[in-house]
């Protein structure tokens, strides 16, 4: 199968989460459109009043006026259409009109971060989200409503949504007063209410996705209640996703209880149809592995005819991956679900500022070393690039990571085509 790049046009979401790009775009469109109207008016004045070209032949004056008029009309159309449509580079397969399909697996802030960047590209994104959270509002709703914890699902929905900033703040808002409401986020309560209205958690996600007009699909990795359990190297057994990082010591292995939790059919289907599968970034033992350990997920990924990529964390995490290298992250995953799982690993290669290093060092964390030679011995393509952004925390930049992911998506069919030509 051959692939090509197609220039296309898609609606411009004027009511997205960021006002600045929207207003800049509208200002540019209005200026160009207004200039076009002025040119049309000028051309009419030239024709009617023979304005400016009084000493020129009539045919020359008419020709100049018509040229100015055509340019004005084109500028007006482009300027005002620019407010409602954006011109984009669409990825399309020859003789196959559907978009590339990318599946992202994980949970926590890492998954939401990546999705904020990927949703800006013309690709079909599916997020398969872990449901092992048991802390805070999610844990309370899980226990009281007997529903999968909605916290990670809520974050992913907000990340993929085309909403006004105020609506995003509303969905993420946590009550800080009231005996029963304190600590709950409005987004979590909405998902709980929708589950009661629709009858099941997947339908609640589907309806909230429709209301928020999200770009992509959000799929819970499982529908049953599940608990994450860790066995520590000192022999202790710690239960609960929110408790494990606080337990101290070294994690030897994590597993799910009960052990017979099966993946949702939608998750298996999305993986089977994917062109690219991305795992991470995110907390290794409490976000990434809980999704991969659900029955059927690892086997579906292994069997999928897609490029499998692991996005490694930039910094280690106290209580989970202290002193871990990128190689240690991969080995931990392989020790849980089997070897020869990934095709490539994406690692941050930029230098962490000394001031940032000092802050993380006080917290028992630090930069993740790459160890390229050891990773290559595992048969991995190692992709290194400066992928960081420093705001409140030192973490991945959504734009940088998503751009790299899309480049991997495009380069794969190009490599396959080259191999076919060589054969």
* Helix percent band: 40-55%
Total helical segments: 15
Q: Give the termini separation.
A: 14 Å
Strand percentage: 15-25%
Shape: elongated
How many domains is the backbone divided into? 2
Description:
Helix 1 (19-49) packs antiparallel against helix 2 and helix 3 packs parallel to helix 5. With 423 residues, the chain is α/β, with parallel strands linked by helices. It has helices at residues 19-49, 58-81, 108-118, 136-145, 151-160, 165-172, 186-198, 201-212, 265-273, 284-292, 297-303, 326-337, 354-362, 372-377, 398-422, and strands at residues 3-11, 85-93, 101-106, 124-129, 217-220, 227-232, 237-239, 251-257, 276-279, 307-311, 344-348, 381-385, 388-390, 394-396. The two termini are 14 Å apart. The protein has two domains: 3-89; 98-130 and 221-422, Rossmann fold.
Compile the SSE list and pairings:
Blueprint: E1 3-11, H1 19-49, H2 58-81, E2 85-93, E3 101-106, H3 108-118, E4 124-129, H4 136-145, H5 151-160, H6 165-172, H7 186-198, H8 201-212, E5 217-220, E6 227-232, E7 237-239, E8 251-257, H9 265-273, E9 276-279, H10 284-292, H11 297-303, E10 307-311, H12 326-337, E11 344-348, H13 354-362, H14 372-377, E12 381-385, E13 388-390, E14 394-396, H15 398-422
Parallel strand pairs: 3-4, 3-9, 4-5, 9-10, 10-11, 11-12
Antiparallel strand pairs: 1-2, 6-7, 6-8, 13-14
């Amino acid at each position: 199968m051959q692939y090509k790049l197609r220039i296309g046009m898609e609606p411009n979401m004027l009511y997205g989460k960021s006002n600045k790009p929207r207003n800049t775009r509208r200002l540019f469109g209005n200026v160009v459109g207004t200039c076009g109207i002025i040119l049309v008016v000028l051309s009419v004045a030239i024709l009617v009043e023979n304005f400016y070209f009084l000493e020129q032949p009539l045919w020359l004056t008419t020709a100049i006026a018509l040229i100015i008029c055509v340019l004005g009309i084109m500028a007006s159309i482009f300027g005002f259409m620019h407010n409602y449509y954006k011109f984009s580079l669409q990825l399309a397969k020859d003789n196959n009109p559907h978009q590339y399909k990318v599946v992202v697996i994980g949970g926590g802030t890492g998954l939401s971060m990546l999705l904020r960047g990927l949703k800006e590209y013309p690709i079909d994104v599916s997020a398969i989200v872990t449901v092992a959270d048991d802390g805070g509002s999610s844990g309370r709703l899980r226990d009281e409503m007997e529903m999968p914890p909605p916290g990670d699902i809520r974050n992913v929905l907000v990340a993929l949504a085309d909403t006004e900033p105020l609506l995003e703040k509303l969905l993420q808002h946590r009550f800080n007063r009231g005996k029963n409401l304190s600590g709950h986020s409005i987004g979590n309560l909405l998902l709980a209410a929708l589950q009661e209205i629709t009858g099941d958690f997947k339908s609640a996600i589907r309806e909230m996705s429709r209301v928020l007009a999200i770009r992509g699909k959000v799929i819970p990795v499982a529908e049953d209640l599940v608990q994450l359990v860790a066995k520590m190297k000192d022999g202790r057994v710690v239960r609960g996703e929110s408790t494990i990082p606080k337990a101290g010591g070294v994690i030897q292995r994590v597993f799910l209880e009960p052990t017979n939790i099966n993946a949702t059919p939608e998750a298996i289907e999305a993986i089977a149809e994917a062109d690219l599968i991305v795992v991470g970034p995110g907390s290794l033992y409490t976000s990434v592995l809980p999704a991969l350990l659900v029955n059927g997920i690892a086997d579906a990924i292994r069997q999928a005819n897609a490029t499998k990529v692991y996005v490694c964390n930039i910094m280690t995490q106290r209580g989970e991956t202290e002193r871990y290298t990128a190689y240690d992250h991969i080995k931990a995953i392989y020790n849980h679900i089997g070897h020869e799982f990934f095709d490539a690993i994406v690692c941050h290669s930029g230098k962490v500022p000394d001031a940032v290093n000092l802050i993380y060092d006080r917290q028992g964390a630090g930069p993740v070393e790459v160890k390229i030679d050891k990773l290559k011995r595992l048969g991995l393509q190692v992709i290194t690039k400066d992928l960081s952004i420093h705001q409140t925390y030192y973490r991945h930049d959504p734009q940088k990571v998503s751009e790299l992911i899309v480049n991997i998506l495009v380069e794969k069919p190009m490599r396959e085509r080259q191999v076919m030509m060589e054969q």
